[in-house]
Amino acid sequence: MRRNPFASDPSVGTDSSMLIDRQLPEYDVTTIRHAVVDADPETTYEAMLTADLLDTGPIVRALGALRNAPMVIVRRIRGNSGSPPPERMRFIDVPETDEWTLLDETYGEEFVFGAVGKFWRPAIEWRQVESDEFSAFEEPGYAKLAIGLSVRPYGEDRTLLSYEARTATTDDPARRNFRRYWRVIGPFAGYLMSRALERIAADAEVRPNRKPPETASGRGRSSRLVRGTVAAAALLAASAYHVAIRPWHRRWGTTEGEARGPLPGDDLLPDATDQVTHAIEIDAPAESVWPWLVQIGQGRGVTAVAAWLYRPLLQS
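-> structure tokens emitted (316 positions)
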């Protein structure tokens, strides 16, 4: 578990920490994205609260639908259609939801909200917690997610917009479950955050109370388009790897039964959170392979490989 070094250092002072540090100073995972916006901090903050996060492109909508698919299936099996999907999604609407809680805000500077739940389940099990209970919540089996958005001046009429998401689990079983979940969802989280920042920046830069130079605005939009295209390509590559390549690579050379079956040494780490099983067939009896196998190791592997390579010369 990692800890923000400034959150508990009395010499630094409370004013030096971010609001998210007060709500979740210790965490298992954090993802941070930044964007420079060609607008002043006040304009950027207002755009940050009111930007429609559903208006971030087809890839984001597809990922959202994919994540919600298990919950939709469960509801249909139970005969409950559930509430219709929202027409828009804005940070300013967070306090009106049942799942999320506004934790803290310094208007014009920082906005922090969070949720508690079992995010790794197909249908997320939410745990309603009041804002004053969030920081101290330690009920076993859950994860706490805190999201902080902030704006800071970045030169004249420019703003550094930051988006951070921290997750902390409450016990070891929850931590293992979350790690498995994060290995799948992690590559997509940063992309979604970057797309949200681009949406906010675009809204801020076209607001009527600011008039950026045409050249700077054009460069900003062009740069974001290039970054978005590169990010989309990277996301598709990561998706292909996680869906098609990684499962195959983790059990390369084995059948499904061999990969899941018991092997010597399983008892040394019975609660392992990850497993990789590789195999290869060798056209030689086990007693011939074993002497080469035991030579693998520091200070021995190179010698064994060299002996094998030069064996024809040694036998001539």
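Strands lie at 2-3, 26-27, 29-37, 101-106, 110-118, 125-126, 143-153, 159-169.
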